Amino acid sequence: MDEVQELREAIRRARGIVVLTGAGVSAESGVPTFRDGDGLWKQRRVEEVATPGAFREDPRMVWEWYDMRRRAILQCAPNPGHHALARLLMAREDVTLVTQNVDGLHDRAVMEAGGTLPHPRLLHLHGTLFVVRCSVCRWEEPNSEPIEDLPRCPRCDALARPGVVWFGEMLPEHALEAAFDAARVADLALVVGTSAVVHPAASIPRVVVESGGQLAEVNLDPTPLTPLARWSLRGASGEILPQVIVE
Ligand code: OAD
């Protein structure tokens, strides 16, 4: 049996799967990744745009950058990798899909597969680009419109900000807890298109392995998780995932 067949079997047999995705799963949709060749963090210094300090100093510049990303991503569509994962999530109740991506493409794939949002087992560890929230109070709302003027909170009039997690901020508590809870009882971690260097996200598959489960990785290149992987499938997730997910 080759690795693709083996992983297909492992997915079918598993009782409890935690999928962790990163920017690579959206690369074939045309969304730039963070750390590859001309990735986003190669173009701008992280501290310039993705920190609370940057927003305090120059909210207009920060919003321009996020507005540009939002517009670009709205031109992109989920690829066969997103569709395969959406099918898996919807076919089985023992699957949890944890994403670091803020691009909303997993959500769009779930919707296209007939699901409703928010999906309780689709966890956004780093928030989403298509929510705008207050920088002071708890107000937030879904929003995919172009940002022309600096948005303000309708409740307290403070500046509103993108609904993403910035460097130095806490991750959303519910998503984080649900991800680690699922990892402790899963017997397979499927790690797709992430460089696995940002924590705590990258610790989630380690918890699966520490709890006795197996790890499968789909990535163009090796990562710090590769030594833990029972299966390492080297290639594009949009090609590999539809082959290993047959649900
Ligand atoms: P990275 O840009 O660090 O890593 C992308 C990974 O995807 C790399 O390991 C590539 O080899 C792999 N890859 C690229 N194209 C692929 C394809 N078609 N198929 C499979 N793999 C592919 O992105 P992340 O790991 O998602 O956080 O980065 C993690 C976090 O760092 C992001 O969520 C973001 C960033 O700083 C925040 O903004 C909080």
Short description:
The chain has 247 residues and is α/β, with parallel strands linked by helices. Helix content is 38%, strand content 18%. It has helices spanning 3-13, 24-27, 40-43, 46-49, 52-57, 59-74, 80-91, 105-112, 173-185, 203-210, 237-244; strands at 17-21, 95-99, 122-124, 127-134, 140-142, 160-164, 188-192, 214-219, 231-234.
Describe the model.
The chain has two domains: 3-30 and 77-126 and 171-244, TPP-binding domain (Rossmann fold, 3-Layer(aba) Sandwich), CATH 3.40.50; 40-75 and 135-164, SIR2/SIRT2 'Small Domain'. By secondary structure, it is an alpha/beta fold. Strand 2 (95-99), helix 8 (105-112) and strand 3 (122-124) form a beta-alpha-beta unit. It is built from eleven helices and nine strands. It has a six-stranded parallel sheet with strand order 3-2-1-7-8-9, with helices on both faces. A three-stranded antiparallel sheet has the order 5-4-6, with helices on one face. The model has no long low-confidence stretch (mean pLDDT 96). 2'-O-acetyl adenosine-5-diphosphoribose binds at residues 22-24, 27-28, 33-36, 39, 50, 100, 126, 165, 193-195, 198, 218-221, 223, 236-237.
